[in-house]
Amino acid sequence: MRREQGKRIATKKSVILLLILIAGIGLLVWGQTKQDAQGYSQKSISLAEVKEELSFGIYEKTDWDTFFSPYHKECLTGELLSQLLKELGVADYIEMTKMNRRHVVEREEWNAIYVQILDILDMECAVTTENLLILDVIEAEDGYILITNQGDYTTRLPKEYFIQWQSYLVYCTSERCIGIAGIVEESLSLSNAYLAAYSDDEIQFLYGGAVYQKEIGTLGASPKTGICDILIKEGDICALRMKQDTIKGELLSYDDTTIEIEGYGKVSHPARMPVYQTYGEVTEKSLSDVVLGNMEVTYVTGENQVCAILIGQPADIQDIRVLLLAENGTNYREQVYLKSDVDATVTCGERQEQLAAGTLLAAEHYLTDMPMGTLTVMPNVAEGKVFICDTEGNAIANGYQGTMEVRSYGEGYTLVNDVPFETYLEAVVPSEMPSNYEPEALKAQAVCARSYAYIQLLRADLAAYGAHINDSTSYQVYNKVAATDASKQAVHETTGQMLLYEGEPVEAYYFSTSMGYTDTASVWNVDDETAYGYLKSVCLNTGENATDLSDERTFLSYISQPAEGYDSDVKYYRWFARADYHGKTENVNQVLINRNAVSPKNVQFYKSDGMTQIEEVTADTVAKLGKITDIETHERSSAGAILTLCVQYEKGSALVKNEYNIRKVLGLCVEKMVYADSSESTSISMLPSAFCAITEQKDGSILLQGGGYGHGLGMSQNAANGMAKEGMNYEEILQYFYQNIKISSIE
Q1: In whole angstroms, what is the distance from residue 600 CA to residue 607 CA?
Q2: What is the DSSP letter of 314?
Q3: Strand bridging mode 176-183 / 151-155
Q4: Which of 28, 132, 253, 500 could form an SS bridge with 260, CB 3.0 to 4.6 Å?
Q5: Distance CA 701, CA 707 (A)
Q6: What does the pLDDT look like over 660-707, one tens digit per residue?
Q7: Nearest Cα to Cα of residue 386 among 419, 348, 352, 434
């Protein structure tokens, strides 16, 4: 009896232990499910991740929030998956493996279903897969930024999903990670990293603009610093592959796929080609930091391309490279004929020969068999000049000192003049300011031109053409008037001098003539005016204190009266124009549509309520606004320039900002312009300046009363000449126009 009772007690204990074990397992499963829902796991897929992965389709996130709201689960279950396939309309095409309603769908199971969903619904192949090695995870406004070996990706997935130095196979749309397919077990590479330091147990390297430290195992002999590929597998460095092959030379041009190296020609490069500065503090730079034609750098090569660039020393600014525009204003020419007034050396690829003085050279004879080649003509004497000619050998432009380069493109030939920096300025000064102006005014112009050109040289906007700038008003007019003794003297007496603001060279903007005031960068509707802190508004009228001209009546009163100033003797100081916008709606619309495409913030269209902005600006959407019914000033600067112009339509309006846009719109309406000297013009396409008042006339036309010529920022060239006549030297002139600047040379 006791034995049976003992058996019953033992049985009860066993049952209790079994129940405890089952409960424990249940708790573990529940805990694992909860953990899976919070972070990455192979055992489950969270609903949040499912929503993200389905974001490629026609459904919005709110749609999926609504769909999943009745299900109080954190992970995808068999029941939810079945309903989801029905909601997507693919249940008849995708076969699910047998699973019960409460079955938690594992990641591998979901991946198999998701691939089939994409095959059916992702018609544009918006979702791709990428192998990403996670370097860092940074919090962002709407989720996180994944710093990876493939660049930066945004994601809304939890930060806990990603472990530093781990590799993942992820689902992406564009540059956004929407889900994880799994862990990548093979090694991934950080290509062309810069190894900065190495010890027995750690390395320090630069990659993607950041500095990283990583523990290492035994990798053999300590390598030198330099470019390498770092292979990482399952979170650990498994190999360092140093790259030793290099070439040196100046960079002459570059684009998205190739770079041109002096002495080597064009060489391909990968989409991501890092640039490292190796002197001083080692830092990562960009390709634009390599100063075209003025910096000898080291190119690390491999697999028939340039892998990385090393900047070993600062730029030594000697030359500037100028793209010479064709007569039609484009970059390309159908034919190029050149001759030199002295013997010259001609180089094209490996071919080099002498060209006798006065001999006509046709570029096509050298470049026909080199569709992407470069031809250079360099006078054997520094003072020699190269002339652009017609087919008969007649010069069609002033001669150019320095080297002339001809490049062949599919669109035609380009011409680049590689010229000493100071020599370039000698031909800019007389092209921008008459040489008979006062010497001190010419010196002020030389300093401004040098400062402006220096900034553009560092930027090299035209690097794809092998140039820093072009020879038009888009930068500075160059060699349209040949260098004169006066311009050479002005450049020589200010050699190296530039305008510095807070220790850095500035873009020393200048313009022709004021209306008595200069303005600030607000006329360009810039995002950050503090970057132009050196541009101040000044009054140029003698014996007059500055007045706030932002009020319409105040400005109209001012601009209607004569005044005495440093440039008041110039005809552009005052002008008025008869204008009419009637019948010109289509022309104005075309300008506004084009300018909106260039900068949407400066031309904005609104519907008839005046509040609803038209997002899609096309000829059709703008035409629906009807005819122009009025043009008026909405905002004016304290110096008098129109900051915002309102173009009123029958069924809407447009707000126009930026002085260039405003001048273009009003210029289209001008029928006759009358200047201060009573001279007239009927061929105006652009208003002389944005300093004008608009007055509606009884006959429906408008009267434009204004003054000045140009954008109105920085130095008025004619006022500078007037100041020089009054005895001011170039330093005093420049200090008058520019705020808190120093005139100095820069190393």
Answers
A1: 16
A2: -
A3: parallel
A4: 253
A5: 20
A6: 999 999 999 999 999 999 999 998 999 999 999 999 999 999 999 999
A7: 419
Say which residues have a Cβ less than 8 Å from residue 291's Cβ, sequence separation at least 6: 315, 317, 457, 458, 460
Local structure of residue 713 (DSSP, 8 states): B
Compute the chain's Rg from CA coordinates. 35
Residue 218 has pLDDT above 70, yes or no: no
Decide if 126 contacts 172 (C-beta within 8 A).
Answer: no
DSSP 69-100: TT---SB-BHHHHHHHHHHHT-TTT-PPPP--
Report the C-alpha gap between 55 and 473 in whole angstroms: 48
Residue ranges with strand state E in 318-385: 319-324, 337-340, 344-348, 351-355, 361-362, 374-379
Give which of 497, 540, 548 is closest to 736, Cα–Cα: 540
Note whether 229 and 243 are within 8 A (CB). yes
The length of the chain, given as a count of residues: 747
pTM above 0.90, yes or no: no
Residues in a beta bridge with 129:
171
User: What's phi and psi for 92, nearest 5 deg?
Assistant: -75, -10
SS3 assignment for 448-513: HHHHHHHHHHHHCCCHHHCCCEECCCCCCCCCCCCCCHHHHHHHHHCCCEEEEECCEECCCCEECE
Q: DSSP secondary-structure letter at 632?
A: E
| 438-461 core/surface letters (b: 16 or more CB in 10 A; e: else) | bebbbbbbbbbbbbbbbebbbebe
